[in-house]
Specification:
Elements: H1 3-38, H2 40-50, H3 57-62, H4 64-96, E1 97-98, H5 102-108, H6 117-128, H7 133-142, H8 158-183, H9 186-194, H10 199-210, H11 212-228, H12 231-236, H13 241-251, H14 255-280, E2 298-299, H15 302-333, H16 335-338, H17 341-375, H18 378-387, H19 395-421, H20 433-457, H21 461-469, H22 474-503, H23 506-511, H24 519-528, H25 532-557
Parallel strand pairs: 1-2
Length: 568
């Protein structure tokens, strides 16, 4: 090798490393900039809420706010308690005991996740209301002629909402608890039993405390879903903060008042996130060995096995089987009414909107995930976490936060065009498909990012190092190495976002273009007009589409214990 070449080689390598470092830094800066843009709705809600030209706080605190806040807190408390109880007990029975039908029940228990709460609310009102088949049968059997002749629980009430939300949302806790129980150390459980603890005592004193972080995460997801709901609480006649934001904005035409209510919801969300973090605790629970032994299941037989099967089957029956059978039967009976031109138009709009949202969310998730891999800095990680906050935002809050920046941008463009060219552009961003798509991307980016990060973690850093030594830059490394290996993870992320976008109601309802209906808003409009039969075809369609990621998610979590190929 010539002397001049040997002198230039280190310098060339240094220049290459410098260029790569600059590209890595560019990924981090891009992630920070994008996360800032995606976080603007939160800032917009706060600014709009506290800079309103008229003093609305006094009116809100004396009229709307007390009742809606109290109802929201009661709904969260009741649903949180019931879902924690149902999900934890079901997960413990399925994980630690063996009885006939256990494996079937394990799969059935997650199916209510495919049922949007507003659809279940429509079904149960149709079933349990005064004119429904249950009360009609009671009056016929016992000869009652008036409502005052007998006592029957009101489904259109706060208690009815708690029951319906609990029946639909308990799988969040069930999946978290089951995953935690599967990973717990057998040694710790056996030591507790040798020290005289019964099975129930081991559960309360050992297994449940170790599962606390997972339970806190599952309950937090349940409560966020409760805060986000609009269709169910409106139909059940429960005035929550989400329903009050909608009514204040659209029915009373008071956007600043809606922003102030949304600010209260933001405070509640941050308090919820803080409580979830505190509930996790500072300490961690770790296994002291990498060797995993099969869980010493207790085999049940006789009446104990029958009781266990009934207990784990009841949540599925209440949260999925009963409402789905009612919807399916009604949809088949009124198929011609449901398969209208409006249904097909709404279905097409839903597919198009969900496809756009899933594609954009996956693209952003790949960008953030790759920036984390390239940058690996505190600011990059903070940016990714900040961009994921949208999942915690209720759709009503997100809609209020998005409308302000988009309207301001539209007004600025229109003013510039009027001044420069004498042409009015009107609404380019707000009130268009772009606004709805942006809301869905912000709301479900965390879902896509979680799947993409999981896929990136399975790619060895040695591949990155090998590609770098061969002269591949960050973009070529992404395109030639990572993207082909990330195809399954990206597909999973797209599927999860697609289905969530299909079901989303509040943000779509508030931001959709004029005369633009999705399946969710189509169902919402028909049920509001008391046309339940015509709405069931759309409802069954959403449920069937939602079953795909639910079953996939269950299969992922229930594969088994770490280090073991045996299923749990």
């Amino acid at each position: 090798m010539p002397a001049s070449a040997s002198r230039d080689l280190p310098h060339s390598r240094w220049m290459t490393a410098e260029r790569l470092l600059g590209r890595d830094k560019a990924w981090s800066m891009g992630a920070i900039a994008l996360a800032t843009l995606l976080s603007l709705p939160i800032l917009a809600v706060v600014v709009l809420g506290f800079t309103a030209s008229e003093d609305i706080w006094a009116h809100l605190t004396s009229t709307v706010l007390p009742a809606s806040t109290a109802n929201t807190l009661l709904l969260l408390a009741g649903t949180g308690f019931l879902t924690a109880t149902i999900g934890t007990v079901s997960a413990w029975l399925v994980t630690m005991y063996r009885f006939p039908g256990r494996e079937i029940a394990d799969r059935l228990l997650v199916l209510p996740l495919a049922m949007p709460a507003y659809i279940v609310a429509y079904a149960y009102v149709e079933l349990l209301d005064y004119a429904g088949p249950v009360q009609t049968a009671i009056r016929q059997i016992f000869g009652f002629t008036a409502p005052g002749d007998y006592a029957f629980p009101q489904v259109r009430s706060l208690y009815g909402a708690v029951g319906i939300f609990s029946a639909v949302l308990y799988p969040y806790v069930y999946l978290s608890a089951r995953a935690s129980f599967l990973q717990q150390s057998v040694c710790v459980l056996e030591v507790a039993r040798t020290l005289g603890r019964t099975a129930a005592g081991t559960f309360w004193s050992v297994a449940l405390p170790m599962a606390r972080p997972a339970l806190a995460a599952g309950i937090a997801l349940v409560l966020m879903e409760c805060l986000n709901d609009l269709g169910a609480v409106q139909y059940l006649g429960v005035e929550t903060l989400s329903a009050s934001v909608y009514a204040t904005w659209l029915q009373r035409g008071n956007l600043p008042g809606a922003a102030q209510l949304a600010t209260v919801m933001l405070l509640m969300i941050f308090a919820l996130l803080l409580a979830e973090r505190l509930a996790r605790g500072d300490g961690g629970v770790h296994n002291t060995t990498g060797r995993y032994r099969p869980i010493p299941f207790e085999v049940l037989s006789g009446w104990r096995a029958a009781l266990a099967f009934v207990l784990v089957l009841m949540p599925f029956v209440a949260g999925f089987l009963i409402p789905f059978l009612l919807l399916f039967k009604t949809a088949v009976t009124h198929l011609s009414d449901g398969l209208s031109a409006d249904f097909f138009k709404a279905a097409w709009n839903s597919l198009m909107l969900a496809g756009l949202a899933s594609a954009a969310a996956v693209a952003f998730a790949l960008f953030f995930g790759y920036a984390l891999r390239m940058g690996q800095g505190t600011l990059t990680a903070a940016a990714a976490r900040m961009a994921s906050l949208g999942y915690a935002l209720p759709g009503t809050v997100l809609a209020v936060g998005i409308l302000g920046p988009l309207a301001a941008t539209d007004n600025a463009i229109d003013a510039w065009m009027r001044t420069t060219l004498g042409v009015s552009t009107g609404l380019i961003l707000s009130g268009t498909l772009f606004a709805v798509t942006l809301a869905l991307v912000i709301r479900f980016l965390a879902v896509a990012l979680g799947a993409v990060e999981a896929g990136l973690e399975r790619i060895s850093p040695n591949l990155d190092a090998a590609a770098r030594t061969l002269g591949a830059g960050s973009w070529k490394l992404l395109i030639r190495v990572h993207l082909p290996m990330l195809a399954p993870a990206a597909g999973t992320a797209a599927l999860l976002v697609f289905v969530d976008a299909m079901k989303e109601l509040p943000a779509t309802l508030l931001l959709r273009p004029f005369n633009f209906e999705t399946l969710a808003t189509h169902i919402y409009g028909l049920t509001a007009a008391e046309q339940f039969e015509a709405a069931t075809v759309g409802a069954v369609t959403i449920v069937l589409i939602g079953l795909l990621p639910v079953l996939f998610l269950h299969q992922t979590i229930a594969k088994g214990r770490t280090g073991s190929g045996s299923p749990g």
